[in-house]
Automatic annotation (TrEMBL):
HAMAP family: 16SrRNA_methyltr_G
Lineage of producing organism: Bacteria, Bacillati, Actinomycetota, Actinomycetes, Pseudonocardiales
EC number: 2.1.1.-
Gene Ontology MF: a single term: rRNA (guanine-N7-)-methyltransferase activity
Alphabetical keyword list: Cytoplasm, Methyltransferase, rRNA processing, S-adenosyl-L-methionine, Transferase
InterPro entries: rRNA_ssu_MeTfrase_G (IPR003682), SAM-dependent_MTases_sf (IPR029063)
Protein name per Swiss-Prot or TrEMBL: Ribosomal RNA small subunit methyltransferase G
A GO cellular component entry from the record: cytosol
Positions that bind S-adenosyl-L-methionine: 86, 91, 136-137, 154
PANTHER family the record matches: S-ADENOSYL-L-METHIONINE-DEPENDENT METHYLTRANSFERASES SUPERFAMILY PROTEIN
Region Disordered, residue ranges: 1-21
Chief localisation class: cytoplasm
Subcellular location: Cytoplasm
Role: Specifically methylates the N7 position of a guanine in 16S rRNA.
Amino acid sequence: MPDAPPTADGSGPDTPDTGQDAARDVAVFGDRLPLARRFAEHLCTSGVERGLIGPREAPRVWERHVLNCAVVAPLLPDGARLVDVGSGAGLPGIPLALARPDAHVVLVEPLARRVDWLREVIADLGVAVDVERGRAEDDVVRRRWEGADVVTARAVAPLDRLAGWCLPLLRPGGRLLAVKGASAADEVERDTGAVRRLGGGVPWIERCGAGMIDPPSTVVVVERETRRPVPSRRRRGQA
């Protein structure tokens, strides 16, 4: 456990109490900033104790994890239906739900211990976020949550596999927002063909939070193309 986890009033090891940082945090979260601080406390305490984040991550949880996810919020359409795949410690789903209270967010996570933690945290925060135990490729998840405007994922899988899991959850024209690291450009170059075959458009990269966090968040965006009928092959002997 960190010596000095972030606190609800805004202090913490990676969030010095400066006017510039305070203005930035308010710009991202508005009147939900105390809830975002509370979420950071959960990550640094029970999140570490229960293995959702590593103890070395706790001292930098605010900028590296909470803000890194929340600055993606401008990419969401108004009133978005958002499915966060492989949510783990609620990243990026919970920061996005706090930054964008107009969004309807569901966290999809297969591991029971993580699902239990997510439900406890959401109950404590008092926010309207759903939690679904399962995987994006499960039939029950697809039936319940298909037609989403946005699907998010952070550090879940390479882009080609991610597209196979996530694109079926999106409405035509909906977008996959994959929060990536330094490998983003290489993945786009390598996996564009696979993404196109799976029904996605050409991926592109957005940098979110420039001037707020350093480095900005790197997001690979894939739009699900309008559904087209696939011609069936006639078997030999058919008219």
